[in-house]
Specification:
alpha/beta, TIM Barrel, Rossmann fold, 4 domains, 6-stranded mixed β-sheet, 17 helices, about 20% strand, globular, binds alpha-D-glucopyranose
Length: about 725
């Protein structure tokens, strides 16, 4: 009896909890309804556009707070003036700079992405931001794109898997992530107007997936438009892209805001899904008109359309509802954490993501790691050994509490060795949008560097790009695939005087590396933020075993890249249109399918230890459409050092009726193993993930027949290929 009474009580409690939870959800929506019912049209319209550089209005009469936004993907940008692009010069806004997102992508590690999101979200929360304007997930189509360093590489599956935990991490702080730039902003040249033409398959299979994952799995609370047009309509107000796909098919319930200055039409902004217009009336750099906020497309003119009935008030109410929902998820959220900034924990995350993302590309004679020994003379050469990289690059630039340079990291870690630095080359001071040539004497710099190198036991060259204009910077693409400022010749000259040389590239893009036969070691060091020097010294010294894998392809020469083989219209376009003629064959998909060997392949990265993948098997021969493939394998660390490996699973269709890449990444797992340790791995691929986008049906379609499963540790290093088949008659 007693038992029964207890069961009933338990049931009641569960019912109350569930009911309460359901009630709480509709409670917020009901609150929003009540607020909208009290608002005037003027108040509603005022919420739909900027009131300053980085804020949009609340409703002062009803106590609804403003929305405060800040760049960017790698950390919280310094305070900008209320109404111009100048920095406000505050003294409380120095923060932690985390590694650039290409480095995060190179970790191939979802946990790292979550930790990153939590940390950068805590800093945004502490800086009282409601929206953090990041992450960016535009696909790396060409190595010349000035903003690739802000994005997650060339593969839609990798970007989709890593964008989700980043968003979750940020939003646990009651700060909205703002995934950008939606969509096909894959070059900076003519970004403000260029019209992108591409096949529906390329759009659906390559350029949309990471955004789709951000909405459906990441549940991002906001999204930012791209500057460019897509099929003749600006992405800020694009009927197909926003109404049909983002808000229709995907059910996005958040706020769609423009990139700064990316709105171009009132009626389209009103009817094609734009919720908040930002940055109009400025050239993005200097001038902005007085009281221009009333001139915004979603300001006075929009108000007129609503008041004269040309646009229904429901359209306006939907925008306001989304904005209020974001406000309830952020500044009005009851259990919002406090945030924190510049903590040891954040520095640890920045350092660890850097350690995990550095990619060892070449290691002749075991050049790396370098042991710290008494009497060892190490020559550290190159401007990038000392140059600050947290500044520059455009809107993602940061004002840091500190930035450990590669030289400083080496000096702190190698306390026995004798470290000498020579600049070697000079790029000149960088200012956003301008490159000011150096006044230093290039010959003198080179002579000094050769002298230092000649007298050293080991030479470490830190080169690459530097986030000034045309060198991994917003609003401009690179003008060459080569390393600038004569670095290539300098590397060759250094190797002529000392063959014991290694190169660390600081960049967010692939570069030409014709000198690798003349060097022993090569690392892709990315832009690592505040902890740059520590993370680099950790790997160079062997304290940490490198485990990064390239999220991008390094073509041997630019013309080997798919966007650069099909004429000017394919890249950069004719200044009006650009046509993605390579279609779905982006990055390694192009190299594999066209059999053009890259210099370094997507997914490639060496270790100080040796791993072996064996016992590779799949659980069945024939699969039904609803099945998932279970891939198992053994991974063994055959070396003397602890290390991590990324097992990658690619799938290709044998004899397809449509064009297909030879193989596509469908699963990966990063595993750390002690020396001699073996681990059994299980990876899953849903058969539904093998679908292609059928342009005739305007839907995803699964092809029956044979497929190949490729398992390896790089897209060009496959341990085993297995054949399976899909039979739609099998259930
Ligand atoms: C810039 C960038 C965007 C940034 C915004 C605000 O033009 O394209 O990524 O968040 O404007 O600075």
């Amino acid at each position: 009896m007693k038992k029964n009474r207890f069961d009933k009580l338990k049931f009641l409690i569960v019912l109350l909890l569930l009911g309460g939870n359901v009630f709480a959800q509709t409670d917020t929506e009901k609150e929003i309804d009540k607020i909208i019912a009290q608002m005037t049209v003027d108040e509603k319209v005022t919420m739909c556009h900027a009131q300053s550089k980085f804020t949009s209005a609340g409703v002062p009469r009803l106590g609804i707070p403003e929305v405060w936004m800040s760049d960017g993907p790698h950390g919280v940008r310094a305070e900008i003036n209320w109404d111009n692009w100048g920095y406000a010069g505050w003294t409380n806004d120095s923060i932690t700079a985390f590694p650039a997102l290409t480095c995060l992508a190179a970790t191939f590690d979802e946990q790292s992405s979550y930790d990153y999101g939590v940390a950068v979200g805590e800093e945004a929360r502490y800086r009282k931001k409601d929206i953090l304007l990041g992450p960016g997930v535009n696909i790396y189509r060409t190595p010349l794109n000035g903003r690739n360093f802000e994005y997650m590489g060339e593969d839609p599956h990798l970007a989709s898997k890593l964008v989700v935990p980043y968003i979750k991490g940020v939003q646990t702080n009651g700060v909205a992530a703002c995934v950008k730039h939606f969509v096909a902003n894959n070059q900076e040249l003519w970004r403000g107007h260029i019209n992108v033409e591409l096949s529906e398959r390329a759009l659906r299979e390559i350029y949309l997936p990471a955004f789709k994952a951000a909405v459906l799995e990441g549940e991002t609370w906001s999204m930012m438009s791209a500057y460019n047009q897509l099929r003749g309509q600006y992405c800020s107000h694009n009927e197909e892209l926003v109404n049909t796909i983002l808000k229709g098919e995907w059910g996005f319930d958040g706020v769609y805001l423009t990139d700064w200055g990316a709105a171009h039409d009132t009626k389209q902004s009103a009817l094609y899904g734009l919720d908040i217009e930002m940055g109009t009336g400025t050239n993005g750099l200097t001038y902005s008109k007085k009281n221009h906020y009333e001139n915004y497309y979603l300001a006075g003119a929009f108000k007129e359309l609503v008041k004269n009935g040309e646009v229904s008030e429901e359209v306006l109410d939907d925008k306001v509802r989304r904005i209020l929902r974001l406000i309830y998820r952020t500044s009005l959220s009851e259990n919002r954490p406090l945030g924190s900034v510049n903590t040891d924990a954040h520095h640890e995350v920045a350092r660890r993501v850097g350690q995990q993302g550095i990619v060892l590309l070449q290691n002749e004679d075991n050049f790396f790691p370098i042991a710290d020994k008494l009497g060892l003379k190490i020559a550290v050469i190159g401007e990038n050994a000392t140059r600050m990289m947290t500044i520059g690059g455009g809107s993602s630039e940061l004002k840091v509490e500190y930035e450990i340079s590669p030289l400083q990291g080496i000096q702190e870690r190698f306390t026995n060795a004798e470290i000498t630095h020579a600049m070697g080359y000079a790029s000149g001071p960088s200012q956003y949008g301008r490159v000011i040539p150096s006044t230093l004497d290039a010959d003198e710099l080179k002579k000094e560097a050769l002298e230092v190198a000649k007298n050293a036991d080991v030479v470490l060259f830190f080169g690459g790009l530097n986030k000034s204009h045309h060198q991994d910077c917003e609003d401009g693409d690179r003008t060459t695939y080569d390393l600038p400022f004569g670095q290539g010749e300098l590397i060759q000259a250094l190797s002529a005087v000392n063959e014991n040389i290694g190169v660390v590239l600081v960049s967010g893009n692939a570069v030409a590396t014709p000198w690798t036969d003349q060097v022993k070691g090569l690392m892709q060091g990315w832009y690592l933020g505040s902890e740059t020097g520590h993370a680099m010294a950790d790997v160079i010294s062997g304290d940490v075993n490198p485990s990064g894998k390239l999220p991008i392809t390094f073509p041997k020469k630019l013309e080997d890249n798919g966007a650069h083989q099909l004429g000017e219209l394919s890249y950069p376009g004719d200044s009006v249109n650009v046509e993605y003629k390579e279609g779905i064959l982006v990055g390694y998909r192009w190299h594999d399918t066209k059999k053009i060997a890259p210099k370094y392949a997507f997914g490639y990265g060496l270790s100080y230890t040796d791993f072996e993948i064996s016992e590779i098997a799949v659980d069945k021969k024939v699969y039904a459409p609803v099945d998932e493939i279970t891939i198992t394998c053994d991974l063994k660390n055959n070396g003397e050092l602890k290390g991590a490996e990324v097992v990658q699973v690619y799938v290709g269709k044998n004899k397809s009726k449509v064009e297909r890449a030879l193989k596509e990444l469908k699963a990966f797992e990063k595993v750390e193993l002690s020396a001699g340790e073996t681990s059994k791995l299980t990876l899953k691929v849903a058969i539904s993930d093998l679908k292609y986008y059928d342009e005739e049906q305007s839907d995803w379609a699964l092809e029956s027949g044979d497929y190949y499963i490729y398992v390896g540790n790089s897209s060009d290093n496959i341990s085993k290929r297995l054949k399976i088949s899909v039979d739609s008659n099998v259930n």
